[in-house]
Amino acid sequence: MKDAAGNETNHTHYHVFDGLETIDDLKKIFPQGKADSLNWVFLSTSGIHGSYVSLDDLEKDPDFKEDIDEEGNANITVLVVHPRMCCIKFGQMRFNLKKDSAYLRGLVKSTVEEIEKFSHGNV
To answer: For position 16, what pLDDT does the model report?
Structure first.
């Protein structure tokens, strides 16, 4: 890895982790159900690890009803950013649409609020 001047560096804090598979994995990172200055979450990011399917798609669009099983479980792509450590975690996460949607929406909302605070003075 190189720094801004092009010099080789050894930053042990830069990490990318695969493995967010269930809502419980996410709740370990966000036990209070809110993002903060150290932990942000993004849903429906796709990339190489999932799909663009959103909570709205799953809840409101009949085209996505086949993506939900009989118990109300579905998958959603998740990306967690730890901005102070230059670390990301990602996965295609299993969750229950009825039980967990409010929790996930709260995480996304609080992430947007935290990013706004984080960006203060730079916008």
So the answer is: 80
Whether residue 40 contacts residue 81, with contact meaning beta carbons closer than 8 Å, is answered with yes
What does each C-alpha distance from 44 to 36, 54, 70, 77, 91 come to in angstroms? 20, 5, 22, 5, 10
pLDDT tens by residue, 1-15: 555 556 665 666 677
Q: What is the CA radius of gyration of the chain?
A: 16
Residue 1 falls within a domain, yes or no?
no
Residue 86 CB-half CA count within 13 A? 6
Any idea how long the chain is?
123
- Provide the number of structural domains found in the chain: 1
Give pTM, 2 decimals.
0.85
Full domain range(s) for residue 49: 15-118
Instruction: Report yes or no on 66 lying in a domain.
Output: yes
Q: Is residue 2 part of a domain?
A: no
pLDDT, tens digit (0-9, with 9 covering 90-100), for 21-30: 999 999 999 9
